[in-house]
Design goal:
It is built from five helices and no strands. It has 165 residues and is an all-alpha fold. It has a domain of 101 residues: Up-down Bundle (3 helical TM bundles of succinate and fumarate reductases), CATH 1.20.1300. Helix 2 runs antiparallel to helix 3 and helix 3 packs antiparallel against helix 4. The chain is elongated, with a radius of gyration of 30 Å. The N and C termini lie far apart (97 Å).
């Protein structure tokens, strides 16, 4: 008569049953480490590909890694711009650069908040309203920074005066 070995699932079930009978809780419900298979198992799609499956979008300059790199570039550009303003004071070139980079940086941050909290699928009208409000506000801030830098004292001097006041 041939002896049949227990499968890993059967062994795990027996060990869990024994642990429950002794009053101990079985913390691990998977296979026992000593009897796990060393064979490589390749993952397969849980849902077969059909005409209704979602297609992978083409790379786009405003989505994904390109967008991520642009955001990081703006963030990194703010460090020397603000440092230069603190060291040398208000210079027209750095004031103008700061008047462009800072509003764009804030726009991308608020746009991420709108994308996260006002999902287009759940509330399409509110998403569009918030997005266009942000765009209008960003254009207004860019025009305001331009006006302050060209017809007034500049951003750095204005912040300095507001800080002292």
């Amino acid at each position: 008569m041939a002896t049949r070995l227990a499968t890993p699932q059967q062994l795990s079930a027996v060990l869990n049953r024994a642990a429950r009978q002794k009053g101990a809780l079985a913390f691990h419900t998977g296979r026992v480490l000593g009897v796990q298979s060393s064979k490589t198992v390749f993952a397969r799609a849980a849902v077969p590909a059909t005409p209704t499956t979602v297609a992978v979008p083409e790379p786009n300059r405003v989505d994904g890694s390109f967008h991520w790199s642009f955001e990081r570039g703006l963030s990194v550009a703010l460090v020397p711009l603000i440092s230069a303003q603190l060291i040398q004071g208000g210079a027209p070139v750095t004031d103008m650069l700061l008047g462009v980079v800072l509003p764009l940086h804030c726009h991308l941050g608020f746009d991420s908040c709108i994308t996260d909290y006002f999902d287009e699928r759940k509330s399409p009208v509110l998403n569009k309203l918030m997005t266009w409000t942000l765009r209008a506000a960003t254009v207004g801030v860019l025009v305001g920074c331009y006006q302050i830098n060209t017809h007034d004292v500049g951003l750095t001097e204005m912040v300095g005066r507001a800080w002292v006041a």
